[in-house]
Specification:
272 residues, alpha+beta, three-stranded antiparallel beta sheet
Length: 272
């Protein structure tokens, strides 16, 4: 698919855009096969029994693992980010093309090596993110981009709520709540709620189908929407930054919380 002028204008004004049909069934099939193979391996299937689905996530296997083996589910969750199929998808030229069309003056691409795949189950709201900007966690550069991709059907009420135009007001100040993530819940390591005038913004919850992609600025304020009907939501988030960004150069290209550099370490002037 091609990025239209209206997509670019919407992104620049709102800080996000939905690209319908961005990924084909063929492009998704390798990931589905690999994900389901991990589930089968964790379920104890032998080589001859490994016949993973290639057209969707095997929800029956996934939900069964959730109910019977949380430690095993954790192993699958951690392993997803290492899948070659997911890494190859992220490095596809079409993602870089979108980034360069939505932002001006992007130089050398800084790819986040952490391909965060989320598995959010109904009733597990404690792991969802409240209002935040991705920059505080990933950093890279303040002109970074997030590619948000659903691998399963989403609730009709959506999955992400965004504050329209919030990216235009720049990086928010943060209160560090658990900077070293000692409670093992990355969603609760910091808060920016005190630095947001919610009356200033309208909010949007985009409708997405499998194959669609939501793109938003690393500075767009957004939050996770809890599950209401679907038993589980599987998504991935790819992120890219700009090595040539002057602020990023001055800070030494900070790598973010996921690589051991919590926000306060390189942004003390933004911490309350």
């Amino acid at each position: 698919m091609t990025l239209s002028n209206s997509d670019v204008a919407h992104f620049q004004e709102k800080g996000w855009a939905v690209l319908k049909g961005f990924l084909s069934a063929e492009e998704l099939s390798s990931f589905y096969s690999d994900f389901n193979r991990l589930l089968l391996l964790k379920a104890g299937k032998t080589q001859g029994e490994l016949k993973p689905l290639e057209n969707r996530v095997d929800l029956e296997l996934l939900v069964d693992l959730f109910k019977t083996d949380r430690a095993g589910l954790g192993a699958v969750y951690r392993s997803l980010r290492h899948l070659q199929s997911l890494q190859k998808m992220q490095l596809g030229a079409k993602f870089e093309e979108v980034y360069r069309k939505l932002f001006q003056d992007i130089g050398m691409i800084n790819v986040c090596p952490y391909t965060g795949t989320r598995i959010d189950f109904l009733g597990e709201e404690k792991f969802l993110f409240d209002w935040h900007q991705d920059y505080h966690y990933i950093q890279l550069s303040q002109d970074s981009i997030v590619f948000w991709i659903p691998f399963t059907d989403l609730d009709k009420d959506g999955a992400v709520e965004l504050l329209d135009g919030s990216h235009l007001d720049g990086l928010r100040r943060a209160k560090m709540l658990d900077p070293l993530n000692e409670n093992k819940n990355g969603a609760k390591t910091l808060s920016i709620n005190h630095d947001i005038d919610f009356s200033k913004y309208a909010s949007s919850i985009p409708s997405l189908d499998v194959g669609d992609m939501l793109v938003f600025s690393g500075l767009t304020v957004h939050r996770s929407v809890p599950q209401k009907t679907e038993p589980v939501r599987v998504t991935t988030q790819f992120r890219m930054g700009n090595f040539d960004n002057e602020d990023a150069i001055e800070r030494g290209w900070p790598v973010g919380q996921l690589e051991g550099r919590a926000f306060h370490m390189d942004h003390a002037e933004y911490v309350d």
